[in-house]
Design a protein that fits this description.
This protein is an all-alpha fold. It contains seven helices and no strands.
Length: 160
């Protein structure tokens, strides 16, 4: 459901989102018009969310990253300069948020697995006396990752 806001007594949010360019809306938001920000948000929230989904994030992580991008835009509204298209600015911020999220995930993974080597007892036993034959058979069947890796991957939860 769209929220209609009156601006100057007659202009409503859907009209603003449809009629004005991103550059104009951002300039109006810099001057303090909250309706201009809401029009920008309405216009770009879906594509930005789908951008994060295409990058492999879950729906929850995508929503959080999307909100992080919009918070950065709110905080930096006075510093914004229209040297490029607004979408260039928006997706550059999204890229930085994505990289930060990958760094946070890698840091969490390091902390979680620090000093935790693979326990040999957890590895599946060889099905033959010749493990090399197992590897060759698996690779010829299209299983390119070793079975121990599949076992470890099934026990690891994604962090994002």
């Amino acid at each position: 459901m769209l929220r209609f806001l009156r601006l100057a007594g007659w202009l409503m949010l859907p009209v603003m989102a449809r009629e004005f360019s991103d550059k104009t809306l951002m300039a109006r938001y810099q001057r303090g018009e909250v309706a201009a920000f809401e029009a920008l948000y309405t216009r770009h929230k879906g594509p930005l969310y789908r951008y994060f989904l295409r990058q492999g994030f879950s729906s929850e992580a995508s929503a959080e990253l999307m909100q992080e991008v919009w918070m950065k835009i709110i905080r930096a509204k006075d510093r914004y300069k229209p040297t490029a298209k607004f979408t260039t600015y928006l997706y550059r911020l999204a890229h930085y948020c994505r990289v930060d999220q990958y760094r946070r995930s890698a840091h969490k993974m390091e902390q979680k697995t620090d000093g935790a080597d693979i326990d040999v007892a957890e590895l599946p036993a060889a099905t033959t006396a010749n493990p090399e034959a197992d590897v060759i058979r698996d690779e010829s069947a299209g299983n390119f990752a070793p079975r121990w890796l599949h076992c470890r991957m099934n026990s690891v939860r994604p962090l994002y």
